[in-house]
Design a protein that fits this description.
The protein is of the alpha/beta class and about 350 residues long. The chain is about 35% helix and about 25% strand.
């Protein structure tokens, strides 16, 4: 059987309605719009409202991605949610999404690699499609980090936002698809960016609550230095594995943590800054959601066309980092060699059943 490539056939994202502008933090901590923008590039971010959670936002993004792909939830083989802010310790957020969208025959699990979670999930889904284990997968990055922010700590509360982005991956006979994936980690530096309590090492009790240990803690300067080096290294390795030259990359989509990190990565790669997609000014750092949200906006803005080479690169707590090179396919035309004959026949049959099913 010919090797299947994994092609992105659908994409979608969700951002909460509640906007937190830099000026809103002036009432909470000693800061101002100029101080925040100069250090981060952020102007505003979105916070989840009442009744919203990681699973509800992931579900909204998932439905948009499925609609774009013209794929029914009932036909999904796999759902992976990348997140470090799940609804519960268990069940997995992916299972909540599976139930919400009615993906009755799908497997579901979460991946937790902090801000690298989406790239990690994409890598796993790609490998399973290429191996023939599944035909398709819904890959989501979603976070509700506002619920883990200490609103008295100006070094962290200004950085993070909430949201979700999703893509549909499908096995394809087309020559395009995900061309490489690199995942790396260094657990010895985990305490430079983490939430100290709430797990089995320090279970929640009155003392952990009083010590404010259920909020994000970060050593900013050390994280900045490590993020830049790690993202550059991962990008170069992913390019080498894909046998793609940096000059062939049409768009670099980095994790949207801080505009200074993205500028430094581009500079060290000697990559044109105008080919780096940046939307951190509108959403802040949405961790696992940042790359899929940015990918969706890049498509909406016409920054990607069929055949473009795209480089995704991320860095997150753990520490984790990774990168992936893919060739963009874009708007689908299934019956022109993108899917196997069996998949095409199944879809046509499903469309016929829908048309003749009694109302």
């Amino acid at each position: 059987m010919a090797r299947q490539n994994a092609v992105i056939t659908g994409w979608g994202f969700y951002a909460p309605a509640k906007v937190m502008r830099n000026s809103d933090f002036e009432k909470l901590v000693d800061t101002n719009d100029q101080w925040i923008f100069e250090r981060t590039g952020i102007r505003e971010r979105r916070f989840a409202g009442p009744g919203e959670s990681t699973s509800t936002m992931a579900t909204s993004a998932a439905r948009s991605a499925l609609a774009k792909a013209k794929l029914k939830a009932a036909d999904l083989d796999l759902i992976i949610v990348g997140t470090c802010s799940p609804d519960y310790l268990f069940p997995a957020t992916a299972c909540l999404v599976q139930s919400a969208i009615g993906a009755d025959r799908s497997g579901a699990f979460d991946i937790e690699a902090a801000c690298t979670s989406f790239v990690s999930a994409l890598s796993v889904a790609n490998a399973m499609i290429v191996a023939g284990t599944v035909r398709n997968a819904l890959v989501i990055g979603a976070e509700t980090l506002s619920r883990f922010l200490d609103m008295t700590d100006r070094s962290t509360c200004i950085l993070f936002g909430d949201g979700a982005g999703a893509v549909v991956l499908e096995g394809s006979n087309a020559s395009v698809g995900i061309e490489s994936a690199v995942l790396r980690s260094d657990g010895s530096k985990g305490e430079l960016l983490y939430v100290p309590a709430g797990g089995t090492m320090h279970p929640a009790d009155q003392s952990t609550v009083d010590a404010r240990q259920h909020f994000i803690k970060m050593a900013g300067n050390e994280v900045f230095r490590l993020a830049v080096k790690s993202m550059v290294d991962a990008a170069e390795e992913a390019l080498s594995l894909a046998n793609v030259a940096l000059g062939d990359i049409a768009l670099l989509i980095p994790h949207q943590a801080n505009v200074r990190i993205m500028d430094a990565v581009a500079k060290r790669l000697h990559f044109p800054i105008e080919k780096v997609f940046v939307n951190v000014q509108r959403y802040g750092n949405t961790s696992a959601a940042s790359i899929p949200i940015a990918l969706c906006e890049a498509v909406e803005q016409g920054r990607l066309k069929r055949g473009d080479k795209v480089l995704l690169v991320a860095f997150g707590g753990g520490f984790t980092w990774g990168a992936s090179v893919l060739e963009w396919y874009g708007e689908h035309d299934w019956d022109r060699a993108t899917l196997s004959p069996l998949d095409i026949a199944a879809r046509k049959l499903g469309d016929l059943v829908d048309r003749v099913r009694p109302l």
